[in-house]
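2024-03-11 09:14:02 DEBUG pipeline.ingest accepted 1 chain
2024-03-11 09:14:02 DEBUG pipeline.ingest length=119
2024-03-11 09:14:03 DEBUG pipeline.predict start
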Amino acid sequence: MARLERPLEQYGSVQTWFKGLREQSGVDPAGDPSRLELLQEFCAFVDLDPDRVVTACLLIKEGRETKISIKGRRAMAERIAQFQAQRADGDAAERRRRGNTVRSFLIHNGILLQSGVQT
């Protein structure tokens, strides 16, 4: 498992997420520290820092515009589903919250994802 090089709050993608939560939803991210805890848990699960979680969903080609990678987005959606399901002993609401927190992080960073079937 890769260790994070700095606190989560210092990653650009986390700052973008928090800014979006404040501006679009009027939510103070500091009011719910479980968001960061879940993101950190997910980063450990996929062995990527937050910024790399976002770039794993992008198609970056030199000399071309960066686009969302269908394959990368699909792979990340599968990892989110696995992360969400790994707490099978938890109740359905807790599983949804786990997946939705990570999806919120990606959506606020421009990676649109659907939640799929929520159990």
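2024-03-11 09:14:41 DEBUG pipeline.report The longest strand covers residues 58-59.
2024-03-11 09:14:41 DEBUG pipeline.predict end
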